[in-house]
């Protein structure tokens, strides 16, 4: 097993769990989102039908992706949109920088885009002397706090309002000690308004790209994508190849489920269709692969690309809520983070940061089989000889003990078996951490096998 | 061009078997569309005016203008006091924008606004308060019905607006008024 | 019916009372019950960790114990083990014989609800029980509607308990969140697992019920360890134990 200096998931989770009242606060905040989602979903009699449609549209598109990407590009070009293709994050960043440099952009306002997190765009542009302002309130908070997002939809969910108040006092001059969310939001509105008005270019992520229109859809509640996108002449939009949908009908399905599943709203405040540059302006779309075509080579991993990044799986995940967004060693946490990021986790533990309870799979608006993908990620790790938590040592023993005893031998030696082998091999999972947090099981006098022989066998 | 051909080539060997294109066959909920819409607008933090809406809007705008508020109107028969500029930055001090919507959606309170209706793309976002006008016969049940009617042919930009801008990024506390308009009133004609 | 019992290792070694109650209940219901020899484990500790090679001999040993056994149904009082057995049998053996075993596999709740439906029970049990809707039975065997799903309500565990006179069924809040056991997860991720277990055990105790009742012994064992550590005024019981008391 590779040695690493990065703390593994269990270690980070253990640290997170030390402050139990904070864990309770964090868990409750996210569970509230799950409850809102349940109310919004249950208000539509066709909810389960929409999930199935979402899955079918995505599977159809992913299985014809080359054709739809080409159709999309051709339609964009007709609209005067410039289209770029990037096979990885480095190429994406290079393309973005070239466009910005050509226009002598000094300040870029950027709305939420998990893809630009994935490509590490901000540090790249900053190294090239371009100031990047994240404009989503949550993202601005963590940008000022020099942290990555801890959640894909509510990126500052790990911070308490007092902590945001302290940060804003220091960075944007709010009153000392003020922590009222309305006051802080208003202050951020003023602060970011100046940024919007002085930006040279704007950048957004993409929620959907509609092939037969050559249009992209960007969804926000705050209006930051549109405040940015509609002020400076130059706008850029980065999208993974998985954002494609065939037509408006497919978009209508996802627009009904996305916000309901994410935060329990019937739709985001703004669902904007960008279909061409503004008069005298330029509009660029950068289509990014960065590992997605590789995932498509595997029938099960391909289903992870059905994800529409609503965050519903993260909100429902009982492990995420009690371990926090920074425990996953990947920029996307929770079930979807494991599904798409486990192979990049050098500690080889995030694939095991899951009880396989399946709640995520049931919540998902496009039916990504998250629990199956997570179990599969473990199998892939095992095949690479990258097992965590000493499993490479004890699993073969468990396998041997459970599987090698003959029928008679096993039946006759239960007592001996239990005494001699169980504490070392079979009971390995129940020692250590088990006894630290829980009472050990009350050991019965005999096994059921023995009881059965004494009471039923003739 | 090489990254494009690399990506397309890699897609050629994808593992997914071809899945057919599905179709939406969901019966729209057609009972009391106006009532549904009104409830939705309220739920997303907006206000719906449905009685004598045009007169109410004209009166409202007249009094705003009289108060010295900066009002841009793109709606015929409603007179503001600001013209549509070429540079969107010129609208930084706009208090009210009056904009014609082309479609309204009962299930979520959204109104479809195009760049033509807005006059300039930034108008519905940069204003402090947004007044949207939409005709009752342009009310549809849900997003499937809405996107059937949206035609992007000559539309470079369009947006569904559902309520005023909002955020819950600080401790999940809902705050109305993030970066877009802080209030939204829909006038149903 | 002639029933072969599938008693997973955890139940056999640590919770024989669950197996005994299952056997007695099925016998009292008029079934003929046998225990095929040579069963150990469904392989779940290994396969859930991704270790399929290590699981092979164990899984095949269990499967072989049921091959050719003369019975109408194979019944298991442990939902999670049953799910794993189904998946793992399929993984390692695609023969017609293996399929014949798979076709007869039932979890106890679904057997009593769907396959050989039970009538009303005679003996009243005048106490409150808090439902432990364990994940694999809930979401993989669909023993009840999960709270995430927007399909019509049903719950086979509750339906069976409602056949017992005077019993009162209540739910913890949240209804069906994972208890945090997760097999080796309980050890690998001790802190999170324990916090989940604590929250779940506390939610059960807060209902004021006398017993936490479920269909999955592993989760019940986890909750029992948590309940005793926290000294909560509630105990765990398997569905079979409750029904065996009521018949």
TrEMBL record, chain A:
Keyword annotations for this protein, in alphabetical order, are: 4Fe-4S, Electron transport, Iron, Iron-sulfur, Metal-binding, Repeat, Transport
Source domain of life: Bacteria
Q: Which SUPFAM superfamilies match?
A: alpha-helical ferredoxin (SSF46548), NagB/RpiA/CoA transferase-like (SSF100950)
Name the Pfam families for this protein. Answer: Fer4_8, LUD_dom
Which residues does the UniProt record annotate as the domain 4Fe-4S ferredoxin-type?
298-319
Keyword Ligase set for record: no
Which PANTHER family would you find in this protein's record?
LACTATE UTILIZATION PROTEIN B
- Its protein name is Lactate utilization protein
Q: Which organism is it from?
A: Shewanella electrica
* Taxonomic placement: Bacteria, Pseudomonadati, Pseudomonadota, Gammaproteobacteria, Alteromonadales
TrEMBL record, chain B:
Organism's domain of life? Bacteria
Q: Which residues form the LUD domain?
A: 93-189
A single Pfam family it belongs to is: LUD_dom
Q: Extract the coiled-coil ranges from the record.
A: none
State the protein's name.
Lactate utilization protein
Whose protein is this, by species?
Shewanella electrica
Record lineage: Bacteria, Pseudomonadati, Pseudomonadota, Gammaproteobacteria, Alteromonadales
From TrEMBL, chain C:
Instruction: Write down the InterPro entries for this protein, in alphabetical order.
Output: Cys_rich_dom
Pfam families to which the protein is assigned, alphabetical: CCG
- Organism superkingdom: Bacteria
The residues forming the signal peptide are none
Cysteine-rich domain segment(s)? 3-83, 131-224
PANTHER family in the record, alphabetically?
Answer: LACTATE UTILIZATION PROTEIN A, UNCHARACTERIZED PROTEIN YKGE
Protein name in UniProt:
(Fe-S)-binding protein
Q: Specify the species.
A: Shewanella electrica
Its organism's taxonomic lineage begins at: Bacteria, Pseudomonadati, Pseudomonadota, Gammaproteobacteria, Alteromonadales
């Amino acid at each position: 097993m590779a040695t690493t200096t990065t703390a593994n998931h269990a270690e980070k989770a253990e640290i997170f769990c030390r402050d139990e009242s904070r864990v309770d606060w964090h868990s409750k905040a996210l569970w509230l989102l799950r409850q809102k989602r349940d109310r919004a979903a249950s208000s539509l009699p066709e909810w389960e039908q929409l999930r199935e449609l979402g899955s079918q549209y995505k599977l159809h598109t992913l299985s014809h992706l080359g054709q739809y990407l080409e159709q999309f590009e051709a339609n964009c070009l007709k609209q005067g949109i410039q289209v770029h293709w990037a096979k990885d994050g480095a190429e994406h960043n290079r393309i973005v920088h070239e466009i910005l440099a050509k226009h002598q952009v000094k300040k870029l306002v950027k709305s939420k885009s998990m893809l630009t997190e994935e490509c590490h765009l901000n540090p790249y542009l900053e190294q090239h002397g371009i100031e990047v302002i994240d404009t989503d309130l949550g993202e601005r908070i963590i940008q000022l706090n020099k942290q990555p997002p801890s959640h894909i939809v509510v990126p500052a969910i790990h911070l308490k309002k007092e902590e945001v108040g302290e940060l804003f006092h220091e960075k944007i001059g709010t009153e000392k000690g003020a922590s009222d969310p309305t006051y802080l939001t208003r202050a951020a509105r003023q602060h970011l308004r100046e940024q919007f008005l002085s930006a040279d270019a704007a950048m957004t992520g993409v929620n959907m790209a509609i092939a037969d229109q050559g249009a992209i859809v960007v969804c926000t509640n705050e209006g930051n994508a549109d405040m940015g996108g509609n002020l400076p002449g130059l706008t850029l939009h980065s999208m993974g190849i998985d954002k494609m949908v065939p037509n408006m009908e497919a978009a209508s399905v996802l627009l009904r489920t996305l916000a309901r599943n994410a935060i329990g709203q019937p739709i985001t405040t703004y669902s904007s269709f960008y279909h061409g540059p503004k008069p005298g302006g330029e509009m660029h779309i950068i289509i990014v692969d960065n590992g997605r075509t590789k995932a498509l080579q595997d029938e099960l991993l391909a289903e992870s690309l059905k994800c529409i990044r609503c965050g519903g799986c993260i909100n429902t995940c009982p492990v995420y809520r009690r371990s926090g967004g920074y425990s996953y060693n990947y920029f996307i946490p929770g079930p979807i983070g494991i599904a798409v990021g486990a192979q990049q986790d050098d500690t080889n533990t995030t694939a095991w940061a899951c009880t396989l309870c399946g709640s995520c799979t049931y919540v998902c608006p496009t039916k990504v089989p998250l629990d199956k993908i997570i179990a599969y990620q473990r199998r892939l790790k095992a095949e690479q000889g990258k097992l965590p938590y000493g499993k490479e040592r004890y699993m073969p023993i468990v396998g041997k003990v459970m599987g090698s005893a003959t029928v008679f031998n096993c039946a006759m030696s239960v007592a001996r078996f239990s005494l001699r082998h169980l504490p070392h091999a079979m009971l390995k999972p129940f020692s250590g951490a088990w006894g630290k947090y829980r009472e050990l099981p009350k050991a019965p006098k005999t096994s059921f096998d023995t009881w059965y022989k004494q009471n039923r066998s003739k | 061009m090489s990254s494009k051909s690399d990506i397309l080539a890699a897609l050629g060997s994808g593992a997914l078997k071809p899945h057919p294109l599905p179709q939406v066959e969901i019966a729209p909920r057609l009972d009391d569309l106006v009532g549904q819409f009104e409830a939705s607008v309220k739920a997303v933090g907006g206000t719906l005016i449905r009685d004598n809406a045009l007169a109410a809007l004209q009166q409202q705008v007249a009094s705003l203008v009289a108060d010295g508020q900066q009002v841009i109107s793109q709606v015929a028969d409603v007179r503001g006091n600001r013209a549509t500029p070429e540079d969107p930055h010129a609208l930084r001090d706009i208090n009210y924008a009056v904009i014609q919507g082309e479609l309204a959606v009962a299930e979520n309170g959204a109104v479809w606004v195009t760049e033509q209706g807005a006059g300039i793309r930034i108008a519905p976002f940069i204003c402090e308060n947004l007044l949207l006008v939409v005709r009752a016969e342009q009310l549809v049940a849900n997003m499937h019905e809405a996107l059937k009617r949206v035609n992007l042919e000559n539309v470079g930009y369009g947006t569904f607006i559902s309520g005023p801008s909002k955020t819950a990024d600080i401790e999940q506390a809902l705050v109305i008024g993030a970066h877009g308009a802080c209030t939204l009133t829909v006038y149903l004609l | 019916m002639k029933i072969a019992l599938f008693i997973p290792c955890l139940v056999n070694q640590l919770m024989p009372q669950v197996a005994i109650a299952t056997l007695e209940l099925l016998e009292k219901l008029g079934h003929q019950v046998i225990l095929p020899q040579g069963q150990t484990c469904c392989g779940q500790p290994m396969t859930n960790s991704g270790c399929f090679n290590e699981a092979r001999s164990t899984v095949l040993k269990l499967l072989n114990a049921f091959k050719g056994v003369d019975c109408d149904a194979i019944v298991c009082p442990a939902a999670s083990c049953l799910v794993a057995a189904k998946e793992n049998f399929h993984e390692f053996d695609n023969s017609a014989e293996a399929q014949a075993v798979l076709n007869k596999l039932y979890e106890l709740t679904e057997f009593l609800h769907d396959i050989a439906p039970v009538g009303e029970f005679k003996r009243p049990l005048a106490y409150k029980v808090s439902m432990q809707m364990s994940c694999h039975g809930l979401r993989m065997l669909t023993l009840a509607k999960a709270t995430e799903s927007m399909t019509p309500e049903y719950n086979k565990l509750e339906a069976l308990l409602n056949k017992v006179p005077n019993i009162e069924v209540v739910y913890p809040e949240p209804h069906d969140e994972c208890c945090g056991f997760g097999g080796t997860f309980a050890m690998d991720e001790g802190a999170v697992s324990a916090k989940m277990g604590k929250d779940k055990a506390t939610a059960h105790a807060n209902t004021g019920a006398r017993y936490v009742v479920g269909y999955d012994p592993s989760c019940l064992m986890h909750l029992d360890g948590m309940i005793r550590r926290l000294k909560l005024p509630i105990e765990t019981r398997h569905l079979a134990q409750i029904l065996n008391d009521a018949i």
